[in-house]
Known about the structure:
The protein is α/β, with parallel strands linked by helices. The chain is 23% helix and 24% strand.
Amino acid sequence: MAADLIVQRPEGLYCPPGDFYIDPWRPVARAVITHAHSDHARVGHGHYLAAAPAAGVLRVRLGQIDLQTLPYGLAITHHGVTVSLHPAGHVLGSSQVRLEHGGQVWVASGDYKVAPDRTCDPFEPVACDVFITESTFGMPIYRWCPDDQIFADINGWWQRNADAGKASVLACYSFGKAQRILSGVDASIGSIIVHGAVEPLNRAYRAAGVQLPPTRLVTEVTDKADLRRALVICPPSAAAGPWVRRFGDSSTAFASGWMQLRGARRRGGYDRGFVLSDHADWPGLMRAISATGAQRVIVTHGSIPVMVRYLGEQGLQAESFETEYGGDAVEADVEPAAAG
């Protein structure tokens, strides 16, 4: 039997014949990075390889690193392992890592979603023998509505608040979710103000060719009437802290897949919850796995036991890797810049 192309090590997921890691959580010499979220892209590695569209956001998040980029679909060979990166549809520059060696093809998907997204390349199914999948929302309860419906709900909420002279404070993760929301809101309703953690990432998205509406920092706004009609995009910690007080009377909301859980909005103290995730829902996970044709599936971070059991019942060889990835819950406030 051929040796596995990817194994678990204390540093992360390791490719033995290629002598490199995929999204390692401890410092290593060579790291292939699926995307720039903080649980997958960490400082301290000697050399980084990532998809070309990820270059800007990786440098915003990690600073000056030894970064090599590949266009999607272009293959290189390292120690006899053919490596290529393919769109994961998760956030700007997110990729699946395809490895081919000794007659085997493995794909490590990182985080992914199959729903359309204006801000990143769409998920591309990649045929393989072994597929490593996330399971952040790997339970049948998670089924997303179309983006157009969610954006209509957000715009309606914002318009009603603006008519009442209240700011609309929408908490979301600063990288990926914030830009996806910006791409779908109706900027004619009022000004859009973003937290200082969000704006450097907006600039990286715009530099990559993603169309976003104009945004300002709160320190750039002199007209209080603008503040009272504004949509305010900020990380959850800012929505719960003193930074948000400068907007006066406001309505607060949180955009996350976790808002589908009854009670999540109430526990967070938000007025509204919008179910919007950058991860695949249950049907999306099943479609993605099926499209690979893989007979062996390795499940990581999320609802691992549920997914492993279900996939096994479908006749697949299903198992799991223990990782230090955090899924949709980890995008903590490690963003650059201050709270401007």
